[in-house]
Design a protein that fits this description.
By secondary structure, this protein is of the alpha/beta class.
Length: 616
């Protein structure tokens, strides 16, 4: 079936001509019959002539009847032709109706001044408005005020040039939600070539734009994550040296000395830098997590005193924890970090005071949420909501809040990593975080954590570290960073350990082969030039089966596993480390039996000075 508009107009014109010809023919035949009847009547009743008798009455009658029959056949034929064409028109109309009613895209016909002439039924499916509601107002009525100038400019351009262009703008759904539409306009010209109407095809791209934003954010996090993971090793080595020598200065400078305060500030700066490194690893989702089944309500209530001190007296803190909610599986320390960062963000948004509300409840993400956010996994979730009555955020700010180093605070008052860290922790825990906010109406962050079945796992208390043995122990320190190796040796020397040091694995192998001393502990960096720490331990262990092994590294777990030839489960001393952290890790390692490398998998205490390498 042809849908060519020119052919359709030609067919309509032809049908109209046939209709007019039929009408004229009917009038002509009617007039002829009338004249014939009148002529008979005049002859018979007026003239009373025998002319009528002399005429072939029967022949005349048959002629008139034949003319009537011929006209009737012609009428029937023309009506049949018109009927066929009308059925054709109805079929085409039905086809266009099916296209309009079932098209996913919204189709509208408007005049050049914006008056609606037609709206496809998909408007009601997508935006919630009926055809009558749309026709009552202007086509600009539901468009976001900030986007109206661009839409009018595009419509004017299409009306003047006859060529439309693709445009994106926001339209208000009937429920008040803003949807993003991708629009293309086509001009309809009259017989004079002037644009009289615009056919507009709109497509809802809200979900696509949300997915693109998620992708862009993930790519940014991945890029910064690779950067942070790449520099973490060298940066942590430098921080280790700074923190270690600062501790040595603090030991030698009494508290009342004028130099003690600058040294203390250096120490604090080093610790803050170490924390910053962990935040970088957190939002890139490469930090070490120790997930356990937890009671979210208990964690929130345990933090109450700390949160009240954190937000200040001018902000009212309210808890609304629902009883008997499900459990979650997460790292308690990281979960506390999430709550604290959201509370700090809320506090900063309420410079003149306000109300901070923290709520926990059971929830569920359904297929409806999946249609809205395709990355969502449906199921049961525990929802943590943190709401404030602060200044709120516009849509543009909300699109950037989880990006690393993005901040609305003035210079020097924020790193821009608080919410990025929250995002990374939640994502690594298998959850989601969404924000609802409007300028002047406050902000609500909703964290969805997957429901976890099982009993709550108690957090282990910190175990006392092992006591030092009276005999002198020998430690082989392998570290490619000279300053850190020197500092580590100094720390161990001061407490009575005998230290052998090597700059790389090959030098360590040579020292182990040449020395007659019993090496009690191999303290080695994991990733070094040449042979890795894991390969070094594998080579030396058969020769010295009683030697304990302690790994140290400033890399992320993924890099340690991939480059250090270590499998998940091994315990690694994290750089940068303080003196007490190093000594405790060494004493704990020396107090245990010396298993083979293949059997070194063991559980680590959550508050231990060492952490367990877990697979990413």
């Amino acid at each position: 079936m042809s849908l060519d508009p020119a052919a359709l107009r030609k067919g309509i014109t032809r049908a109209e001509r046939k209709q007019w010809w039929l009408s004229f023919s009917g009038v002509a035949v009617t007039l002829i019959l009338t004249v014939g009847i009148l002529s008979f009547s005049v002859t018979v009743y007026v003239l009373k002539s025998t002319l009528f008798e002399e005429m072939n009455f029967h022949a005349a009658t048959r002629s008139l009847v034949g003319m009537v029959l011929l006209f009737s056949v012609y009428v029937i034929y023309q009506q049949w032709q018109i009927h066929r064409f009308r059925m054709h028109l109805l079929a085409q109309e039905e086809l266009f109706r099916l296209i309009g009613e079932n098209a996913v895209d919204m189709i509208a016909v408007v005049t050049v001044d914006g008056r609606r002439l037609y709206n496809s039924p998909s408007y009601q499916r997508v935006l919630g408005y009926s055809r009558e509601e749309l026709e009552q107002g202007s086509s600009y009525e539901q468009i976001h005020p900030d986007d109206i100038p661009a839409v009018k400019a595009a419509a004017k351009e299409a009306a003047e040039t006859g060529v439309g262009r693709c445009l994106e703008y926001r339209v208000r759904h009937k429920n008040g939600e803003w949807r993003v539409l991708e629009s293309t306009a086509s001009a309809v010209r009259d017989s004079g070539g002037n644009v009289e109407k615009l056919v507009i095809v709109n497509r809802d791209v809200t979900e696509r734009r949300a997915l693109e934003q998620q992708l862009v954010l993930s790519q940014r996090l991945e890029a910064v994550g690779k950067l942070s993971g790449g520099v973490a090793h060298d940066f942590n080595n430098l921080l280790g040296v700074i923190i270690g020598y600062t501790e040595a200065l603090q030991d030698s400078i009494p508290p009342g000395d004028a130099l003690r305060e600058p040294v203390d500030e250096i120490s604090k700066a080093g610790q803050r830098a170490a924390t910053l490194t962990q935040q970088l690893l957190a939002f890139s989702r490469k930090q070490v997590l120790e997930p356990k089944i937890l009671d979210l309500n208990a964690i929130i209530l345990d933090m109450e005193k700390m949160l009240r001190r954190l937000i200040g007296e001018d902000i009212t803190l309210k808890f609304e924890v629902h009883r008997d909610i499900g459990k979650v599986k997460a790292d308690r320390g990281q979960l506390e970090q999430v709550v604290m960062n959201l509370a700090v963000n809320a506090r900063d948004a309420m410079a003149r005071g306000g109300e901070l509300r923290i709520e926990t409840t059971d929830g569920e993400l359904t297929d409806k949420d999946v249609r809205r956010y395709r990355y969502v996994v449906p199921g049961r979730y525990i929802i943590l909501s943190v709401s404030d009555t602060g200044v709120g955020m516009d849509a543009e700010t909300q699109s950037h809040i989880f990006e690393p180093f993005f901040t609305t605070k003035e210079k020097g008052k924020g790193t821009g990593l608080g919410l990025a860290t929250v995002y990374g922790i939640i994502k690594q825990s298998g959850g989601y975080i969404w924000v609802d906010s409007e300028p002047g109406k406050g902000t609500t962050f909703r964290v969805f954590l997957p429901f976890a079945a099982g009993a709550v796992e108690e957090t282990s208390t910190e175990k006392p570290h092992a006591q030092r043995c009276d005999s002198v122990r020998t430690i082989l320190v392998v570290e490619d960073e000279h300053s850190l190796r020197k500092l580590t040796r100094t720390m161990l020397d001061k407490v009575g350990y005998r230290v052998l040091e090597a700059a790389d694995a090959s030098e360590a192998i040579k020292i182990a082969a040449d020395t007659s001393l019993h090496i009690d502990l191999l303290l080695t960096d994991v990733i070094m030039p040449g042979m890795s720490g894991g390969d070094l331990a594998t080579k030396l262990s058969p020769e010295r089966p009683e030697m304990r092994i302690l790994f140290m590294s400033g890399y992320t777990d993924g890099a340690i596993e991939a480059k250090g030839n270590l499998k998940p489960g091994l315990v690694v001393l994290r750089k940068p480390f303080a003196r007490e952290t190093l000594l405790r890790a060494v004493e704990d390692a020396l107090s245990k039996a010396a298993p083979t490398i293949a059997n070194r998998d063991r559980e680590s205490d959550p508050k231990s000075t060492t952490s367990q390498l877990v697979a990413n």
